[in-house]
Amino acid sequence: MTKAIPTKAKTKTPAKAKAKAPAKAKPKQGDILLQMRNIHIKGKSDESWIDIINGIDLDLYRGEVLGLIGESGAGKSTLGLAAMGFCRDGCKITDGSISFDGMDLMQMDKSSLRELRGKRIAYVAQSAAASFNPAHKLLDQFCEAPLVHDVMSRNDASQYAIDLYDRMNLPSPETFGLRYPHEVSGGQLQRAMTAMALSCRPDLIIFDEPTTALDVTTQIEVLAAIKDIVKEFNTAAIYISHDLAVVAQMADRIKVLLKGDEVEQAPTEIMLKKPSQEYTKSLWAVREHTRKEQPAVKNQTPVISIKSVTAGYHSSVDVLRDVSFDIHKRRTVAVVGESGSGKSTTARVVTGLLPPRMGSIEFQGETLPAQYQSRSREQLRHIQMIYQMADTALNPKLRIRDLIARPAKMYLGLTGKALDDRVRDLLHMIEMEPDQFIDRLPSELSGGQKQRIGIARAIAAEPTVIICDEVTSALDQLVAEGILKLLDRLQSELDLSYMFITHDLATVRAIADEVVVMKDGDVVEQGIKSKMFKPPHHPYTELLLGSVPEMDSKWLDRLLDSRGKDNLGDAAIAKMNKKS
Predict the structure, then answer these.
(1) Statement to judge: residues 338 and 211 lie in one domain
(2) Which helix (H) or strand (E) element contains residue 519?
(3) SS3 sequence, 261-315?
(4) Domain holding 252: CATH number?
């Protein structure tokens, strides 16, 4: 019998606690809402201005969802923000017209634009955690826009928030808003941000990569909530993403961008089946990289052995419970699971940042001290880490040469010309031209380039094991594929072993030799990749595999019908527990 997976209790909101949305005439679906013509946007680079958007047209109708896709630097977010009459610092709209419901946004003064934004046009950012004020409760932040725009009273706004939290399948809707942002999960915070965007019942919402960093089960809940709300309120939306399968579930039409130019545009079904341009076809073909199947390891001492580890952050709470698995030489072990499953906590135990309450970590057969302060410099050198968010992992004040040089100097004792030569060699290894990049700051690099610098910094210490913590989750699919190919090549050249933490099963297929599935601090299943992707599966593994979006515009609808729209992840787990 399969071990049951606990589900979280949910509190339904009593009918009397709900408030109706602010009264307004329901717009006629199909009318033109947003029209952008010949939009040109430039960004400042040093003392010159460079083109970001090159004469793009965009039409959006009431109740319609338009998907904007393309790789990093395509101009997706810049165009989406321009739909609000807004440009980031260092950018400017140099030509074109923007008409929203008959109003010329280019001619509006700042006061009129402020009145429009938040009330009739709302924005949902990629990183909810960075967008909420950490010092204020979620309910207070929800109520701010309705009060500022005089849409409803504080009491009515509070009741409306409870109603939307309930519609978004958030736990205990009546008290959910009393929490601070750090007290809820990433998926819950993303849904709370969508609810906040709906607080004034806007006519248009710009969704800017709202599910990029979420695990697959949480992503399903967020997508289902967004799709229901947009449909029910007849809200138009621009959905920006580099995840083509996700866009296919949400959009009525798709517009493809490349370096500020429109490549093509078509209804979603046509775009999926018969894209007309080669660039679009290349987007459809990403993630073709697959690591060659390696034979199972027998009678070999693991490079890293995690033995019966139990650990937590408070004296009475165990985040990990009896976790055990091995990592062998030149192999990649993918650790997968939803947010809160214990993946990153396991990494903290391996690196010595979190001493376990029970169990141990062995390196090449020898037990490591539990705390990193007690480990020797040589022991520390052998285990390095690459982080999810390169933006926050790289010191913004240090140039690339200094970022890469530091571990080479600290662990290998290199100085002078030898150190400079080593930095240049490392830049060549990560396929970045030294003379072009060595004196740049992190702010002068793209997301993919920053992640390559993170890789160079890790291998500068000449480690044996590298822990890759969600290193591709914030990257578009083309850039992510390049990072995976780079890691695969470096593994072969440098005899590296990887612990690869991810929630993206496409990444697991591409790079893993073995897979460890975690749920709520337990290892529920593990084995070689070929075995893990073939049934029968543990119920939770089955849930993960079934939650990966497919390149089929009806996939999400079929999934919602099969699982039920209420409490998707937990309901599915409970159903599987019953079967097992």
Answers:
(1) no
(2) strand 514-519
(3) EEEEEEEHHHHHHCCCCHHHHHHHCCCCCCCCCCCCCCCCCCCEEEEEEEECCEC
(4) 3.40.50.300
**Does 566 map to a domain?**
no
Q: Cβ contacts of residue 553 below 8 Å, gap of 6+?
A: 248, 249, 268, 269, 272
Are 277 and 333 contained in the same domain?
no
Q: What is the residue type of 452?
A: R
Number of other CB atoms surrounding residue 544 within 10 Å: 23
User: For tokens 């296919």, what's the residue?
Assistant: 248
Residue 574 lies in a domain: no
pLDDT (tens digit, 0 to 9) for every residue of the chain, 580 residues total? 344 443 433 433 333 334 445 444 444 456 899 999 999 999 887 678 889 999 999 999 998 999 999 887 788 989 999 999 999 888 899 999 999 999 999 999 999 999 999 999 999 987 777 789 999 999 999 999 999 999 999 999 999 999 999 888 788 999 999 999 988 877 788 889 989 999 999 999 999 988 876 778 878 888 888 888 888 888 899 999 878 888 999 999 999 999 899 999 999 999 988 889 988 887 776 556 677 777 777 778 999 999 999 998 876 778 899 999 999 999 999 999 887 788 989 999 999 999 999 999 999 999 999 999 999 999 999 999 998 777 778 999 999 999 999 999 999 999 999 999 999 999 999 999 999 999 999 888 877 889 999 999 999 999 999 999 988 877 777 788 889 999 999 999 999 999 999 887 878 888 899 999 999 899 999 999 888 888 888 888 888 888 888 888 889 888 888 876 544 444 444 444 444 3
User: If phi over 0 gives left and psi between -120 and 50 gives alpha, with beta otherwise, what is residue 199?
Assistant: alpha
- Do 346 and 228 belong to one domain? no
Q: What angle do CA 154, 160, 201 make, to 5 degrees?
A: 100
In a domain, 486, yes or no: yes
Question: Roughly what angle, to the nearest 10 degrees, separates helices 477-494 and 447-459?
Answer: 10
Q: Could you tell me if 571 and 546 are in contact, meaning their C-beta atoms sit under 8 angstroms apart? A: no
One domain, residues 355 and 395: yes
The reply to whether 339 and 199 lie within a common domain is no
The answer to whether residue 101 sits within a structural domain is yes
The DSSP H or E segment spanning 32 is: strand 32-45
Domain shared by 83 and 166, yes or no:
yes
Q: Which domain holds residue 439?
A: 304-548
CA 377 to centroid of chain Cα atoms: 34
Whether residues 382 and 262 share a domain: the answer is no
Total of domains in the chain: 2
Q: How far apart are CA 388 and CA 474, in angstroms?
A: 7
User: In terms of domains, do 422 and 520 share one?
Assistant: yes
